[in-house]
Design goal:
Blueprint lengths: L6 E6 L7 E8 L2 E8 L5 H22 L2 E6 L3 E6 L7 E4 L8 E5 L4 E5 L4 E5 L6 E6 L11 E6 L4 E6 L2 E5 L6 E3 L4 E2 L12 E6 L11 E5 L4 E7 L4 E7 L9 E7 L5 E7 L2 E5 L6 E6 L9 E4 L4
Parallel strand pairs: 15-19
Antiparallel strand pairs: 1-2, 2-3, 4-5, 4-24, 5-6, 7-8, 8-9, 9-10, 11-12, 12-13, 13-14, 16-17, 17-18, 18-19, 20-21, 21-22, 22-23
């Protein structure tokens, strides 16, 4: 499936009098815009300043702003932006009764979902239609605990986990490899404690990178942890998120960009945060308005 997801343009208003700068972001059916005002002093000075400012803001925006797809309810998708997390559109996915998780698959640039009966589907973001791809050949015991659905971009394999169970799935055939149960490594201060992994994501999720790293959220200790050996299930605590209150839901993803830059985003309850991958500290971006029931999963979509 091929689709255009995001397009940005930034330009000053035309002469003779220039008083503002408009930045508009578009994707089919999903749009946002903002206006940056400039004071008018001298006509030539203003035009030069605005042109320079436009180039600077365009570069900065391209580095940090991206569309986010969120999963709420049984099968409702919502779209918002990483800079201004207000829901701009929502749609129900058709062809499934429920989704346990979603993710963007960098290998073929599609959005996939997983159903409670272990079907892997692709989701058309224009129509909401789900199309079957494969069904897993080994079942994961599903309870009320959150389910992790995230792609390893380097291997093009789906990480599928709940509780301490750790599966690796071929997304095209459904073949499941049962990997090592999740457990904190011997040198970690949480050794012997039962992990409470509620969300996970890989770095460098763009194309097929030469390296990647997997990070998780542990709800019990309220911290970012690294799954240092994803196939073995070994965990190492990075640091506390620092949230004031424990949220009702967690959703986590890492936005990979060209050049190896990675920005981690956490939807905790109804608030969006960035997460420092070196310290674990969460920094509030703002409330996710329009997603009152909280988000069960998110995936940051690339600009294409």
């Amino acid at each position: 499936m091929h689709k255009q997801i995001f397009f940005c343009c930034l330009h000053p208003n035309p002469p003779p009098r220039v008083s503002s700068l408009m930045e508009a972001s578009k994707t089919k059916g999903w749009t946002t815009s903002k206006r940056i005002n400039a004071r008018e002093k001298d006509m030539k000075t203003i035009q030069i300043t605005l042109i320079a400012s436009a180039a600077f803001v365009a570069t900065a925006s391209a580095a940090v702003s991206a569309p986010v797809l969120g999963l709420t309810g049984d099968k409702t998708l919502v779209m918002f932006d990483t800079e201004k997390p207000a829901v701009s559109k929502s749609m129900d996915v058709t062809g499934v009764d429920k989704l346990v998780g979603i993710d963007f698959r960098p290998g073929n640039k599609t959005v996939i979902g997983v159903t409670p009966d272990h079907r892997i589907v692709t989701i058309n973001l224009e129509t909401g239609a789900a199309t079957d791809v494969a069904k897993m050949d080994k079942m994961l015991t599903l309870t009320e605990a959150p389910v992790v659905v995230d792609f390893n971009p380097m291997a093009d394999r789906l990480r599928f986990m709940t509780g301490t169970t750790n599966h690796r799935v071929h997304p095209d055939t459904g073949a499941v490899t049962v990997d090592g149960a999740l457990a904190y490594e011997d040198a970690d201060m949480h050794k012997g404690e039962t992990p409470d992994i509620v969300a996970a994501a890989y770095t460098n999720s763009i194309g097929k990178p030469e390296k990647t790293a997997m990070y998780n959220i542990d709800a019990t200790i309220g911290a970012l942890v690294q799954q240092t050996k994803p196939n073995d299930g070994t965990l190492k605590a990075i640091g506390k998120l620092g949230l004031k209150d424990k949220p009702a839901s967690y959703a986590f993803d890492i936005h990979g960009e060209d050049g190896g830059k990675n920005t981690a985003y956490l939807a905790a309850g109804a608030t969006l945060y960035t997460v420092n991958l070196e310290t674990g500290a969460a920094t509030e971006v703002g409330p996710i308005t329009g997603a009152d029931n909280g988000l069960r999963d998110i995936t940051v979509l690339p600009k294409m």
